[in-house]
Design a protein that fits this description.
With 203 residues, the protein is α+β, with helices and mostly antiparallel strands. The protein has five helices and ten strands. The protein has one domain: Sandwich (Jelly Rolls), CATH 2.60.120.
Length: 203
């Protein structure tokens, strides 16, 4: 029963992610199927995380600041205990309060930033430890398959897009990301451009 419920939930999350991807593509004047076609077959994973109460939250983080490697992340977070924070405008950390009514929090990963040439940005975020209560979150990741080739879209190749790597295999990016998850994103993009940029011919 639990397996069937989880499979049904993930199926709905995939449908939502593909709808969001279509809307984001169309908003940039791109073909609505661009993200879906690039990601196909997508890698979809769901992670359930529980953050216990911490007696000294001033000394540790529940999860250090990072951006997500993939595409679209759909988060069903705790409706009682907060802790999620995102960095806004290179100025301040903004807390995301407990989410009531089973609302879904949408986050964008590095691959959509690359594909959009920076029109959409992957958001730096972290999870603060809390002294009271346990925080539960369920995150569904809609990511490219390992062999998906990612690059700034043709119509996104304005000067700003030259800052981004591509074309490259997502699997190569993910391998590099594993060791640089908590490092500077711009430096990671530059390193991926230098390491993998010559492996796949440009159009």
């Amino acid at each position: 029963m639990l397996r069937e419920m989880l499979d049904a939930y993930i199926g709905q999350m995939v449908s939502l992610a593909e709808l969001l991807a279509e809307c984001m593509s169309l908003n940039l004047g791109l073909d609505g199927g661009l993200v879906r076609d690039t990601f196909t077959p997508p890698f979809v994973g769901t992670k359930v995380a529980m953050y216990p109460a911490c007696p000294r939250p001033d000394l540790v983080w529940g999860l250090r600041a990072h951006t997500d490697a993939g595409g679209i992340i759909l988060l069903l977070q705790d409706d009682v205990v907060g802790g999620l924070e995102f960095f806004r405008g290179d100025r301040e950390w903004v807390p995301v309060g407990p989410t009531k009514g089973s609302r879904i929090f949408v986050n964008i990963g590095d691959q959509l930033e690359v594909m959009s040439g920076g029109a959409y940005r992957s958001v730096l975020h972290r999870v603060a430890a809390v002294a009271e209560g346990r925080r539960l979150s369920v995150a569904t990741f809609y990511n490219p398959g390992a062999d998906a080739v990612v690059a700034p879209a043709a119509t996104a190749r304005q000067p700003a897009a030259q800052l981004y790597p591509g074309p490259y295999r997502f699997g190569d990016y993910l391998d590099y990301y594993q060791g640089t998850k908590f490092a500077d994103k711009a430096a990671r993009f530059q390193a991926v451009k230098e390491l993998f940029g010559s492996r796949i011919p440009h159009d």
